[in-house]
Write a structure and sequence with these properties.
Layout (H helix, E strand, L loop, with lengths): L4 H9 L4 E5 L6 H10 L5 E5 L2 H4 L1 H18 L8 H9 L3 H8 L6 H17 L4 H10 L4 E3 L9 H10 L4 E4 L5 H4 L9 E4 L2 H11 L6 E3 L6 H5 L5 H8 L7 E5 L10 H14 L8 E5 L5 H6 L8 E3 L11 H12 L3 E4 L4 H8 L3 E4 L14 H6 L5 E4 L2 H12 L6 H11 L10 H14 L12 H24 L1
Parallel strand pairs: 1-2, 3-4, 4-5, 5-6, 7-8, 7-10, 8-9, 10-11, 11-12
Length: about 475
């Protein structure tokens, strides 16, 4: 909703009908409000689907795909990011995790053979007939996928079912880390929409996507921050509980990998005390913006009693999915003297808004910084959008300069934005390119459905028997319960 609301509205504005298919039925209050509002737009409709939760083939294939994703992150390209491996392991069944740990399967060659075997089994599984019927009943000109891409995700089932139903597919990569930290793209859509050349390289190098299928558009979810105007500063600071007569630093929290401490504990015990050691920063105000998915951390660690510190929003923190929350998010960045974070998308958004962005490389968050592939993009692309300090002395000096108005990062930020956010030019919005790509995908028609190699036909037959027997067993157990 946060990332693709602009795309949906742009398609509606061009006279298209948009049907939103959800697998998730639990929404925040803001999300429900968004759905209620967009339902009033002509041409929009939405529905829940549970087809793949019921499909026996999908139930069988999901553990295998999670195993394949675990093997993907154990490959030579991903040596280092331990938490990515841990996340994939948690989603993989205990028996399959033990299989991977067998001494004979620890080498690169053995893992490669196991990966190919798993992919052969997955590729031999038939398309979900029920999902293909559901998509055919909707009769779309194009199926646009916006997957979260967590290990074991089902996007490949949608691509295969759509292709069997003669529906072209266009996958839009939602965020900057999705191709380097989530899962393996097993089945390529007809078009893959990426932000920039770095994501294109990841798609080709890590996922084996044909470059001819890839379209670079820029980041459509960031277009809104380029032209937005702020509300009055004094009014904003009163709302968040800070004094209007002084500068403030904004700390944007993230949805980080687990570390030796939570981000809230880190601010209380490390970051704020380190800042206050510098006379230039002793009285500077601090606005802390919690990540909506980590609110419990901030409820457990009070900071509001500290002088000049405000945690906001706290009770109902939400992704910026509507006009009010977007304005709040933008104002918190725009009115700040500088922005600080560990590793979060908001650091890129702060660069778009034109604020200097800072971090300090702390070993407590190594898995979210040094060991996370996408973090390097913040520091290196175009010279880096983020000024990273190796020590707290350097970090304090960087922030003191920013508070004093001595920001010399503008050239590097512009170079980063040109390479990462708007590769077709800072004045060239990404959204029209995304919409055009979706329309072109629909006009081009679908790729032919992939055929299972003749040599794998016996495997498909065997799988049919195994899955059919498992489904029959479940039905018998339910009838006898």
């Amino acid at each position: 909703m946060r990332l693709f609301d602009p795309v949906i509205r742009a398609l509606l504005a061009r006279g298209h009908r948009v049907h939103l298919l959800h697998e998730r039925d639990a929404y925040t209050d803001r999300e429900r409000e968004w759905l209620a509002a967009i339902e009033r737009e002509p041409g929009f409709s939405w529905a829940l689907t549970s087809t793949l939760y019921r499909d026996p083939w999908a139930r069988f294939a999901r553990p295998l795909r999670r195993l394949a994703d675990l093997l993907f992150f154990l490959g030579p390209e991903f040596v280092g990011p331990e938490e990515q491996i841990a996340r994939a392991e948690k989603r993989t069944g205990l028996g399959l995790r033990r299989l991977v740990r067998l001494p004979g399967l620890r080498g690169r060659r053995a893992r490669g053979l196991l990966t190919r075997a798993v992919e052969a089994i997955d590729g031999s599984a038939p398309v979900s007939e029920e999902l293909a019927r559901e998509l055919s009943g909707l009769a779309p000109d194009v199926l646009v996928l916006a997957p979260h891409l967590l290990p074991g995700g089902r996007h490949s089932e949608y691509v295969r079912a759509a292709r069997s139903a003669g529906i072209p597919t266009c996958m839009c990569i939602a965020s900057w880390d999705n191709l380097s930290s989530k899962q393996h793209l097993r089945v390529a859509p007809d078009r893959l929409v990426v932000w920039n050349g770095l994501q294109q390289d990841e798609a080709v190098r890590l996922h084996g996507i044909d470059p001819q299928r890839i379209v670079i558009t820029g980041a459509p979810s960031f277009d809104q921050w380029f032209e937005r105007k702020p509300r009055p500063r004094d009014e904003f600071l009163v709302r968040v509980g800070l004094a209007a007569d002084g500068p403030y630093l904004l700390f944007v929290a993230g949805a980080l990998f687990p570390g030796s401490m939570t981000e809230a504990e880190y601010l209380r015990d490390v970051w704020i005390p380190e800042l206050r050691r510098d006379a230039r920063l002793r009285d500077v105000q601090l606005l802390i913006r919690p990540h909506p998915r980590r609110l419990e951390q901030w409820r457990e660690v009070p900071l509001d009693h500290l002088s000049g510190v405000a945690v906001w929003p706290r009770e109902e923190a939400s992704m910026p999915v509507d006009e009010e929350t977007r304005a709040d998010f933008f104002d918190s960045i725009f009115h700040s003297a500088a922005v600080v974070g560990i590793n979060t998308t908001a650091m890129i958004e702060a660069a778009v808004v034109g604020r200097s962005v800072h971090t300090v490389l702390d070993p407590a968050f190594a898995n979210s910084q040094r060991n996370a592939f996408h973090f390097d993009y913040l520091l290196e692309v175009g010279g880096g959008a983020v000024r990273a300090a190796e020590s707290y002395d350097a970090h304090r000096a960087n922030l003191a300069a920013a508070v004093a108005g001595e920001d010399d990062d503008a050239v590097r930020r512009e170079a980063f934005l040109l390479a990462f956010v708007r590769p077709h030019g800072l004045e060239s919005a990404a959204l029209p390119r995304v919409v055009a790509t979706i329309e072109e995908t629909a006009a081009a028609g679908p790729s032919p459905a992939a055929r299972v190699p003749a040599g794998l036909a016996p495997l498909r037959l065997a799988l049919r028997g195994v899955v059919g027997a498992a489904a029959l067993t479940r039905r018998l157990k339910r009838s006898l319960a």
